Amino acid sequence: MAGLATSFGSGAMTNSIDDIAEHAKAFFVIGSNTTEQHPIIGMRIRQAVRQREAVLIVADPRRIDLTDFATIHLRHEPGTDIALVNGLMNIILANGWEDGEFIAARTEGFDDFKSAVEEYTPDRVAEITGVPVEQLQQAAELLAENKPTAVLWAMGITQHTTGTHNVMSLANLQMLLGNMGVPGGGTNPLRGQNNVQGACDLGGLPNVYPGYQSVTSAEVREKFAQAWGLSTADGGSQTAVGGLSSAVGLGITEMIPAAGEGKVKALYILGEDPIMSDPDTNHIRHCLESCDFILLQEIFPSETAPYADVLLPGASFAEKDGTFTNTERRIQMGRKAIESPGEAKPDWWITAELAKRVLQTSDDSRKIDPAAPYSGWEYENTAQIMAEIAALTPSYAGVRYERMENGETLQWPVKDKNHPGTPILHVGQFARGLGKFHPIEHVPPAELPDDEYPIILSTGRVLFHWHGGQMTRRSKGLLEIYPQALIEVNEDDAAKLGLNGNKRVRVSSRRGSIEAKALITDRVPPGMVYANFHFPEASANELTIAALDPIAKIPEYKVCAVKVEVAN
Ligand SMILES: Nc1nc2c(c(=O)[nH]1)N[C@H]1C(S)=C(S)[C@@H](COP(=O)(O)OP(=O)(O)OC[C@H]3O[C@@H](n4cnc5c(=O)[nH]c(N)nc54)[C@H](O)[C@@H]3O)O[C@H]1N2
Ligand SMILES: Nc1nc2c(c(=O)[nH]1)N[C@H]1C(S)=C(S)[C@@H](COP(=O)(O)OP(=O)(O)OC[C@H]3O[C@@H](n4cnc5c(=O)[nH]c(N)nc54)[C@H](O)[C@@H]3O)O[C@H]1N2
Ligand SMILES: [Mo]
C-alpha cells in the first residue's frame, strides 16, 4: 500500500489508460494478470475485445482469466520472455514487417540489435520457450497487422534476474513496429502499489532526488542544498546534514542483507512488511534479528512488528490528506474522510517530527540556514509539501493543490501552472533523443529444476488479497471468499503425486518449506506450481530465492525450484 522504499517495477506507462483502451488495435499483455491485479484496466481490455474486436495476445505461463478473451495465448516456460520476444522480432524482420521509416528517423543501434535477433530462429525459440513455431508465426503476424499495439506488462516480466533486459526487449519490439509516441501504442508497465509511481517520482529510490534528478550530479545537489538550507553541497560528505552525499544508496533488497552483515545498523521501515514480502524469509528473519535498531511505522502490528524496537502508529489513507500518482502518471487527491484511532498520525507528520528531533540532537544543526525556503521541516499541511515538490521537481512544476481542488487530475510532466499535463510520452522524440535498440540475449533463471527439486515454483497474488495480507486478512468478507493459502497444482502432477482426495501439499525449496491446501487446476502447466504470499502460515517467500537482477535489484520471485509432496 504505502511502499515508500519499494523499487519494484520500473519506468512509467508511456500512454494513458483511456488512450490504449480506445485506440489500441491490439493488446500484447505479457506477465500481467490484468483482470485480477489491475481490474479496471483488465475490464477496459475485455470491453475493447468484446465491443470493438480489438486483438488480444497474452503471453503467460499460466492460464489466467484474460486468456479466455485472448486471440492467442502464448504459454511459454517461466523466465523465457527474452527468447520469446526475440523470436517474434526474428519473424517480423524475416518478413520485412518492421517500420523502416520509424527505425530510420527515431532510433539508433538497429544493426547490432538485428544481428542478435537473427540468432533467435523460430525453431530455436520454440525449443527454449516451449511455444510451438506456428503460434510464434501467428502472434508475429497479429503484431504486424494490428497497429498500433499497446504492450502491457507487470511483475511476470520484471521479477526475474533478467527483469531489466526483459523490459528492454519489449521496448525493442515497440520501436521495431513503430508503436511509440502514438495513441493506442507504447510500453506500459502497470505499476503495482497505488502510489508506487508517486513514491518513485518523489525520490523513494536510492539514486535520485524527486523528479529522477541524479544524486551524482553536483548541480542537482547544489539546488537541493540551497533549497533546504544546507551550508554545502559537498559531494564527498556522507552525512545527511551539512552536505548532500553523492553516493548512490542501497535498495531494499540490499539494505536488509546488509543489516544481516552488520553493515547497516538501523532500519526505518514504513509501509513495508519484509517478513512477508521479501524473498527467502528465513534469511530475512536472521537479518532483522541481527540489526541493532528497527523503527517500524505501521497501521497494524504486522508480521515484521515483533522484530521492531519501536512501533510508531501511522494513519491510514482514509485518515489523511495527500496525493497518489497512479500507474498512468496521473496525480490525484485523497482527502481525509475519518479520524484516526488512538495516537495514529499521518506518515508525513511523523517523519517531519523525527527529522526535527534528529536536527536538534545533531552537532551539525547550526549549519542549516533558517532563511532557506524549505529548511526546518516546518510543515503544517500537505499543500505546503506539494508547493515544495513543485518548486524543486520539474515534472511536477505545475502541480498545485488549487488545481486539483478544481477537479484537475494532471498527468506529469506538468511543466508550469498553466500546462495541461502530458497524456502520452515520447511524441515526436524520446527523452534521450533517439530511441536505442539493445541487443538482448536469453539467460536462464538463477535456479531451475533438477532431480531433487523437480518443479518450478512461480509466485504472485490473487484477486482477494493484498501482499502480506495485513489489510485484507482483516476484512471479514474477503476472508470468507478466500480464507487460506492455496497452492495451484496441475492435474497431471496431482495424479502423479497421488493427491486424490488428499488436499494438502508440502512444498519445499533449498531455503524452506510450507504446507497448504492444493488447488488442483489447469491454470498451471504440468511441472509448475503457483503460490501466493498472503498468509503468514504458508507464505511463498519461505521458499523463494534472493537472486537479484543486477541492474534493478529486483528478486526472481517468479522462478525457483521446489519439490512437492502430499502432506499428512
Ligand atoms: N488484488 C490485488 N491486486 C494487486 C496487488 C495485490 O496484492 N492484490 N498488488 C499490486 C502490486 S504491488 C503489483 S506489483 C501488481 C502485480 O500485478 P501482476 O504482475 O499482474 O501480478 P502477479 O500475480 O505478480 O503475476 C503476474 C503474472 O505473471 C505471470 N508470470 C509468471 N512468470 C512469468 C514469466 O516468466 N513470464 C511471463 N510473461 N509471465 C509470467 C503469472 O502467471 C501472472 O499471471 O498487482 C497490484 N494489484
Ligand atoms: N513471492 C513474492 N513476493 C513478492 C512479490 C511477488 O510477486 N512474489 N511481489 C513484490 C511486490 S511487487 C511488492 S510491491 C511487495 C509488497 O510488499 P509490502 O510493501 O511489504 O506489502 P504491503 O502489504 O503492500 O504493505 C506493507 C505494509 O504497509 C502497511 N500500510 C498500509 N497503509 C499504510 C500507511 O498509510 N502508512 C504506513 N506507515 N503503513 C501502511 C500495511 O499494514 C502493510 O503491513 O511484495 C513483493 N514480494
Ligand atoms: Mo508491486
Write a structural description.
This protein has 568 residues and is of the alpha/beta class. The protein contains 20 helices and 21 strands. The strands form 6 sheets. A 6-stranded mixed beta barrel has the order 16-20-17-19-18-21. Strands 3-2-1-5-6 form a 5-stranded parallel beta sheet. It is globular and about 70 Å long. Bound molecules: ligand MGD (2 copies) and molybdenum atom (MO). One ligand MGD binds next to helix 9 and strand 16.
The helix fraction, in percent, is 25-40%
Distance between the termini: 36 Å
Kindly provide the name of the CATH class of the largest domain: Alpha Beta
Strand content is: 15-25%
CATH architecture of the largest domain: 3-Layer(aba) Sandwich
Low-pLDDT regions: 1-10, 235-241
* Average pLDDT level: 93
**In CATH terms, what is the fold-level topology of the largest domain?**
Rossmann fold
**How many separate domains?**
3
Features:
16% strand; Rossmann fold; 6-stranded mixed barrel; binds molybdenum atom; 21 strands; 3 domains; 20 helices; disordered N terminus; 568 residues; 31% helix; binds ligand MGD; Dimethylsulfoxide Reductase, domain 2; Barwin-like endoglucanases; alpha/beta
